[in-house]
């Protein structure tokens, strides 16, 4: 092959972390072991009609028993970091009171095993598994849940703070608030727009209070951040109506979190847009000061952009399919449920999410500008495809390799243009319980045969492994 243009220089910084990510409810199983009690996802997945195929996390990929093998798998792949989440109902089964030692022991052993293999742990404290008892007491729309979360964060921080240096308070609070309490496609499945906004505020407050609780127990070298799933919102046209739709969705998807986190205030336009839903009287005077801490890093989870327009009667009803948030008669956009979502350009993954890596570059540069000096991690990025095992026992997933290559190039491009990105966590290490889609969507770099729990690294795992070991992104056809 003759080529005149040399491959672009795609070396990543020396200390760049090459990781993968998972979440407790999606992989652990063992839902009744060692004192664990139900979380809202146990209740939800056991409610008929909520999860595709009636799937539950009861067994998942049995990581609670196979964690040693799973760590070895990461080590064999040459990965240098792992983002996992701690199951609140294992540590504090009722959401209150002292920690259950056996719950903490599991994570301590996991972390020790990671460290023994030279893998840097990143612990997420909340990846959606609220103890059911706290939901019974009102859940995230109730202020007390924020206090309970801070207390739990302190317990985990005390137990693991000597060995975990990177802490994520919340994973994707947007999903917890607006899919959990607005559209109801996630646990606990409530469909109350005012409750969704209250939940968003109490998640913000929980993050702030948990940050203080962690600071008081963690060594000074520890870093505390949050993983957001910012929407890259694009307007269908430059018409005033479409630009206004863009502004509204940007407020409800992004600025409802970055306002208080980075600027210490809720955006005025958000308060105005949602005035018919709530008067925001649940925000108390001191709350914004509690939320507005300096962040040691920001975690960015990115999959696909959104394209929106103002209301256009003829296309109403497509939203459930096109906004990628699952089918529901209820909108996850309080006060802006008339905004129309359109199919974004690009190929589709098995989630029907369009592939557009430029969104990731845009986001990383946008956060670099919005939060100058705050390091960034891509704490999730990846894609579901319809993977199958060949007759020879291999799983060939060239689409996923292309997706990862394009998105890692997008990260590199952001770094080249000044973004301080410290690492990349592929979602996900293993195929797992994909929330409302159950086991029907496979995001893993490693295939799981659910009948046997056999792990089969896909060709993308081998590809990612080579990238991680070299610290350089090869040309795609190498
Ligand atoms: C994220 N949406 O979930 C989560 O952090 C992961 O646990 C999950 O497996 C992964 O992305 C893939 O879906 C999302 O509807 C779920 O906008 C739904 C949405 C976004 C993120």
TrEMBL record:
The keyword Plastid does not apply. The keyword Hydrolase applies. PROSITE patterns: GLYCOSYL_HYDROL_F1_1, GLYCOSYL_HYDROL_F1_2. Residues 313-328 have a biased composition (Basic and acidic residues). The active site is at 172 (proton donor), 380 (nucleophile). GO terms for molecular function: beta-glucosidase activity. It catalyses: Hydrolysis of terminal, non-reducing beta-D-glucosyl residues with release of beta-D-glucose. Residues 309-335 are annotated as: Disordered. GO terms for biological process: cellulose catabolic process. Keywords: Carbohydrate metabolism, Cellulose degradation, Glycosidase, Hydrolase, Polysaccharide degradation. Substrate binds at residues 26, 127, 171, 303, 427, 434-435. Its EC number is 3.2.1.21. GO terms for cellular component: cytosol. Pfam families: Glyco_hydro_1. PANTHER family: GLYCOSYL HYDROLASE (PTHR10353), LP05116P (PTHR10353:SF36). Belongs to the glycosyl hydrolase 1 family. This is Beta-glucosidase. It comes from Streptomyces xanthii. The lineage of its organism: Bacteria, Bacillati, Actinomycetota, Actinomycetes, Kitasatosporales.
